[in-house]
Amino acid sequence: MNDDLILLGHGSGGALSHRLLDDLILPVLSDRSAEQNDAALLTIGQSRLAFTTDGYVVDPPLFPGGTIGSLAVHGTVNDLAMMGARPLWLSCALIIEEGLERQLLADILADLRRAADGAGVRVVTGDTKVVPRGKADRIFITTSGVGVIEHSLAIHGGGARPGDRIILSGTLGDHGMAVMAAREGLPLDGLRSDSAPLWSLVREMLAEAGEALHLLRDPTRGGVATTLKELARQSGLLFTIDEAALAVTPQVRGLCGILGLDPLYVANEGKLLACVAPEAAEAVLARMKRHPLGERAAIIGTVDEGEAGRVRMRTVVGGMRMVEMLAGEQLPRIC
Amino acid sequence: MNDDLILLGHGSGGALSHRLLDDLILPVLSDRSAEQNDAALLTIGQSRLAFTTDGYVVDPPLFPGGTIGSLAVHGTVNDLAMMGARPLWLSCALIIEEGLERQLLADILADLRRAADGAGVRVVTGDTKVVPRGKADRIFITTSGVGVIEHSLAIHGGGARPGDRIILSGTLGDHGMAVMAAREGLPLDGLRSDSAPLWSLVREMLAEAGEALHLLRDPTRGGVATTLKELARQSGLLFTIDEAALAVTPQVRGLCGILGLDPLYVANEGKLLACVAPEAAEAVLARMKRHPLGERAAIIGTVDEGEAGRVRMRTVVGGMRMVEMLAGEQLPRIC
User: Fold this and answer.
1) Which CATH number is A165-323 given?
2) Fold equal for A37-148 and A165-323
3) Which residues form the PurM-like C-terminal domain (chains A, B) (predicted)?
4) Pick from A47, A98, A110: which is nearest to B44 by CB?
């Protein structure tokens, strides 16, 4: 491995990404705590805002359940929602490869607009660049989002407390496997990205839980495993999850089996992990199950004192194994 | 020309860009007036904010006077400043081609950080994606910015009034020609990008002019000519400029001559155009000349009633000619 060059794995969201972050990216940020969360907190007058950005380079740009356009809306509004912020405004910057079919661009932009309307956000500013053929791959979209925090809770990635229940809002890996199947021309058999805007679900959870809601995070790049590992580190606690509580669709399980992938490391784009105080967990779970995006929500584990930053999993056969971060890159360009 | 494909000229900032905007991009924006200006206006509580985004794809990523990192800061903070907003926060999304030299990335990010510090803004959130070799060109950076408007003036691209004096803050085309020379390996002979953050100059102008400051815009893609044409259209007025009042360095004039380019269409990244009420124009100009970024500022023309949206130029030989928008793309990837 050449340490002098940037590798695909540096964009995986896993261990290599974290090293690049620590070495090169975090020193650029003016507030080093910001990069640990999905969005930065801004205070203006009496208002608390959340501000976030993500670049989308998904290949292919159209996949079952969405396009790079809707994904660029959902991913960014979800980053705001994970701070407990109501998404309000989006910016949208396009980098287009010369020769892109105009109709494809129109379809992507229409899907982006539909997704924004569905998420209740307004696309208020944009930019378009075109680069020569061969200098980009059809289309990349970077969206930034601004949302408002209308409560006094502090919801962030380091907020877990001992005793908290860990809730996952649904099935693992749907987005990653749908994109993978579309890219490789594999049979879809009902595979579909779960790409969706999570604010309306978060709003329900906030209303139910209030101060009992300690942490939210959407498991995107690196999947649930990598995300849990990040959260355990940020919170300085031990997370224990039950394999038996994890839901995976037969389609995702089947394709993962064929490709030798672990669904625990495959991205979602419409799911969330939450840490909730034990006394409120069942009520929050019940409320989530009444929401279309939380029908398959489950308590998948608990937060404990113990070895800080570790995640362990009770396997279905009764063993206990450590869960580590994604090491390299198993699925490039899924978002 | 194939109407079904996106062409390089669609990213030029000129006539083709405007057509793409009208046909495909504006329908996506929730507020169609936003795209006419450099930034969107947001109201939150008692505060007025400006919000903007730009993607940077400059080739090469290092050029005399800057890098894609500092350019990504200056371009975006200037879009805020052109709305009369004080730039406060930036987001930064990197799309990196696999195989980029780590040292080059470090240099670019260090330059980005220096530029942010110099402009008084904080980089508060970011994202990094890596795409396979050949799917991008080294590095693209998209920054978004949030600024605060601390006055009650309405400064926008449609704000010009009959009688206004048009002020240009310095020489034409410095950024575009420096990038061009660096890309083509031409002798630089003192060519240097003018990439710079303009807020401190705008603050002086606001202090001097108050309500007499009607319009601000930085002439980037498409140069001063295309920008004036946009502003004349937005304001619904006739702009008349004096060729003799336009400043061009000998280096820019020389290289433009060799390449057959018109400096009036070559981008700046550290200059601004302003429309100022006649009674305040001389005082504003004097104040600008005392600022390092306005030393070569000049009144270059006037705003008149007349054919709405037209720009005409009194040539040095005494003729009058119409100025049109950049038609295709004369200098791709200069920002």
Assistant:
1) 3.90.650.10
2) no
3) 161-312
4) A47
* Of B40, B99, B109, Cβ closest to residue A24: B109
Tally Cβ neighbours within 10 Å of residue A102: 17
Mean pLDDT of B315-322: 94
Q: pLDDT tens digits, residue range A227-274?
A: 999 999 999 999 999 999 999 999 999 999 999 999 999 999 999 999
Q: Which of A11, A28, A51 sits opposite B113 (nearest CB)?
A: A28
Question: In whole angstroms, how far apart are CA B168 and each of B157, B249, B275, B289?
Answer: 15, 14, 9, 11
Residues A333, B131: C-beta atoms closer than 8 Å: yes
What mean pLDDT comes out for the span B112-119? 97
Alpha-carbon distance of B80 to B77, in angstroms, equals: 5
Nearest chain B Cα to A106, which residue? B24
- pLDDT tens for A53-107 read 999 999 999 999 999 999 999 999 999 999 999 999 999 999 999 999 999 999 9
Q: B184: Cβ–Cβ under 8 A, 6 or more apart, which residues?
A: none
Q: Where are the domains of chain A?
A: 37-148, 165-323
Tokens matching residue A89: 């405004």
Percent pLDDT > 90 in chain A is: 81
CB proximity A104 to B under 8 Å: no
The nearest CA of chain A is from the CA of B163 a distance in Å of: 31
Q: Under CATH, to which class is B37-148 assigned?
A: alpha beta
